[in-house]
Amino acid sequence: MELLEEPAPPPSKRLKRLEPSIRIKAILSDDYSKDIPLVPAYSCQLESKQQLQIVIKELSQKLPHFQHLKRVNDRNVLLCPTSEIEDTLEQHLERLAFSEEVLQALLRQIQVVEVPSIGPRLRTQYEKMLKYWPCKFHPDHYYESLQNGSNFSATQRTFHNQMAQLLEKLSTEINSKQPVGICVDPRGPSIVAIAGSQMDSKNHEHCPMSLVDFVARSQKGGALTTTEQFVEEPGEKLSGIPKNYYEYLKGSDAFVHLLCGAEVSRQSSDPIAGTDNLSKYGPYLCTGYDVYLLQEPCLMCSMALVHSRAKRIFFLQTSDNGALLTRFQLHTVKELNHHYEVFQFTREQDIS
Amino acid sequence: MAAFMEDALVEARRARDAGEVPVGCVFVYGDKVIARGGNEVNVYRNATRHAEFICIDATLAYCREKHLPARQLFAEISVVVTVEPCIMCSAALHTLGVKEIIYGCENDRFGGKTVVDVAAVVGQRISIIGGVRGDEAMALLKEFYKGDNPSAPTLAKKKK
């Protein structure tokens, strides 16, 4: 609970050093985070490099394997995965009708080597794979930045950290240490809705479920009956924020400057210029919104946030039944029709 | 239990007539329907108001009214729903520990069995039977998605 407190005001030079002690870590799919599995493959060693051209030409036609690897490593040439061969390698190559010259070259100093089964997505994976066999690598700069944490600007990082602090404060000071969630329109950034789950809540009444309903309230919707009192202002701009949370924000030196309020539903359904659907069409469910949660959401809540089309999910604490990191990574299921990004606030020393 | 699929289909058609994705659900306790509902997503601007959740909330209200313990009651509930529950609903039903789920057609976009093995993630297995009058349930969905999709952003703002 102490971990997100602002550090005591240090000399200005030290602040820079202390700030990154909270890291915002992207939770990426296994394709990006895990080591790439290896497969055994046959390689041969050519007598001279002069043979390369003709050997590669025939190989690429007759044994078109390993598109993600370089076929040649010095004088060593990859033939095929060992699983490809049912009888002997020699018989297999003969059946493929290689020219006599190439066949002789390919059968020299046959070895079984371990090679990456798929191409690397990130530089860290690429570097690990190099010791096995040279790979092709086309870096994806956005994913590289997600992995090394350079995707957020200093201003964005400061705001995210502030939301993390706010979650802890709201939980301890307003919601009896129970989970809370905040939904933010990142264009402000402006707080659209805040919800906490109650001590006596039923099995399925978790804070993200209330949160998406409170967002709906800011769009002339909302289905849940709740005991919360909401901010009463003209229009529905603030109607996703319960009164007690709003009053806490406005009475707190640390958070009073935060913007609050949603863009109100538009009268016209015609799109206006914008880079994303939120800017083009205006608020619709949680499209384009960020969701900050004290606790990693369970599977039900994680899917509720998919249905709600949230843009990014940030959470502080893992949950035993969490479905974004602990038990499952719902956001990495390719079949789903919407994918949000997921980030966890971690302390520096938590990271290996 | 499969006989109750007719009740669920009635709710699905009602949802369709209200401009919602046509999915209907009933909760059966003993041999009696104690909760019924269709999707209410568009009317409340809340993407979680699926038919199953309408029934869960109605069941909780039923328990309060009758002074029955919800936990024990859910263990006796048969969920009869026209479409395979999505990952969210399936997770909720597994966590609540209902007795069984009987559904019509599969949900290959986000089904709680077809796309993700919800039981494995939640750590609880319950009996699930699919394919009960699935063609009728599927026909309703196909009919719906052929027309304008009212859940598209531009149309969602239209006032009645």
Automatic annotation (TrEMBL), chain A:
Record keywords: Hydrolase, tRNA processing
The protein's name: CMP/dCMP-type deaminase domain-containing protein
GO MF entries: tRNA-specific adenosine-34 deaminase activity
Similarity comment text for this entry: Belongs to the cytidine and deoxycytidylate deaminase family. ADAT3 subfamily.
Domain CMP/dCMP-type deaminase: 155-343
Gene3D superfamilies hit by this protein: Cytidine Deaminase, domain 2 (3.40.140.10)
Single Gene Ontology BP annotation: tRNA processing
Gene symbol of the encoding locus: Dwil\GK15805
Cellular component aspect of the GO annotation: cytoplasm; nucleus
Record keyword tRNA processing present: yes
Record InterPro entries: CMP_dCMP_dom (IPR002125), Cytidine_deaminase-like (IPR016193)
PROSITE patterns: CYT_DCMP_DEAMINASES_2 (PS51747)
From TrEMBL, chain B:
Coiled-coil intervals: none
GO process annotations (BP): tRNA wobble adenosine to inosine editing
Molecular function via GO: tRNA-specific adenosine-34 deaminase activity
Matches recorded under InterPro entries: CMP_dCMP_dom (IPR002125), Cytidine_deaminase-like (IPR016193)
GO cellular component: cytoplasm; nucleus
Record-linked Pfam families: dCMP_cyt_deam_1 (PF00383)
Keywords, sorted A to Z: Hydrolase
All copies of domain CMP/dCMP-type deaminase, residue ranges: 1-114
Name of the protein in question: CMP/dCMP-type deaminase domain-containing protein
Gene behind the chain: Dwil\GK11635
